[in-house]
Design a protein that fits this description.
Layout (H helix, E strand, L loop, with lengths): L3 E5 L6 E5 L6 E5 L3 H14 L3 E5 L2 H11 L3 E4 L2 E2 L2 E2 H9 L6 E5 L4 H9 L4 E4 L4 H16 L11 E4 L2 E4 L4 E3 L5 E3 L2 H11 L6 E2 H9 L7 H15 L9 E4 L3 E4 L6 E2 L1
Parallel strand pairs: 3-4, 3-5, 5-8, 8-9
Antiparallel strand pairs: 1-2, 6-7, 10-11, 10-17, 11-12, 12-13, 14-16, 15-16
Helix pairs in contact: 6-7
Length: 261
């Protein structure tokens, strides 16, 4: 397959695939519903993903994982010959491949168990197709395309009459005054500035702030967002830079004169 470079993963010692774009990543879908499998494949094909493999039970899923070495796994919990949690444990014993649980089991205990076993995300059925694609794309970018800045570059956001220095965590205002960002506010801006104009989901932002134990912090995230807007927006109640995308997350809007350097 062209465009895919093969290197050795530094931590596992196993062969790991580095791709040029997220759309070259190989996806493995594990679910016992053929109807849902076909729907997921169509959604992902329409989003630009070309390399998709389907497995309908635990045995086949593990066989295909070894055979195709997927870059991402979408995993159901309830399967005919076991459950997704068992597969998750076996995958983590041999790989750090990103995994998203997609399951009808929506109890908090199931979510926490899946995340605790090392999954990158957990979504419940029914789901929004666009949200699923956004979550998968965000995880793939974070995993395989981390932001790389020149050591000499000082990341700065120009937001109207305010300048945000992401190195010193300071906001310079037009009247000459300066505001300090908290660690959480700085982490939010850094995560959003990686993908200006793109939606960053609640889960991705929460994980950037609280790590793998981020579940349940959505209300806390909203408080930090509100306080951050009070520092970077001229009118916090009507923001033009840090925008809410209802039901999905937030995005940094640089289309109204803002920019980064």
């Amino acid at each position: 397959m062209t465009g895919r470079n093969f290197q050795t993963h530094a931590k596992s010692g196993k062969e790991m695939i580095f791709v040029n774009t997220i759309y070259e990543c190989r996806l493995l879908i594990v679910d016992d519903s053929r109807e849902l499998q076909d729907m997921l494949s169509e959604i992902l094909h329409n989003a630009g993903y070309s390399f998709i493999t389907q497995a309908f039970d635990c045995k086949t899923a593990l066989e295909y994982f070894e055979k195709y070495r997927p870059d991402f796994v979408i995993l159901d919990v309830m399967l005919p010959d076991g459950d997704g949690f068992e597969i998750m444990q076996k995958l983590r014993a041999r790989s750090q491949v990103p995994v998203l649980f997609l399951s009808a089991k929506d109890e908090d205990e199931d979510r926490l168990l899946g995340l605790g076993l090392g999954a990158d995300d957990y979504m419940t059925k029914p789901f929004l197709a666009r949200e699923l694609v956004l979550r998968i794309s965000s995880i793939l970018r974070r995993t395989y395309f981390p932001l790389k800045l020149s050591p000499s570059a000082v990341p700065v956001l120009m937001l109207g009459n305010r300048t945000v220095n992401l190195e010193s965590a300071a906001v310079a205002c037009e009247d000459g005054s300066s505001l300090s960002l908290t660690a959480k506010e700085l982490a939010i801006l850094k995560e959003l500035s990686k993908r200006p104009g793109s939606i960053v989901t609640f889960d991705v932002l929460s994980q950037a702030l609280w790590g793998d134990s981020y579940y349940g912090y959505e209300n806390s995230l909203m408080v930090h967002i509100r306080r951050l807007r009070e520092k970077i927006e001229e009118t916090p109640s009507s923001p033009q830079w840090l925008l809410t995308v209802r039901g999905l997350g937030y995005k940094l809007n640089l289309s109204k004169g803002g920019h980064s350097r």
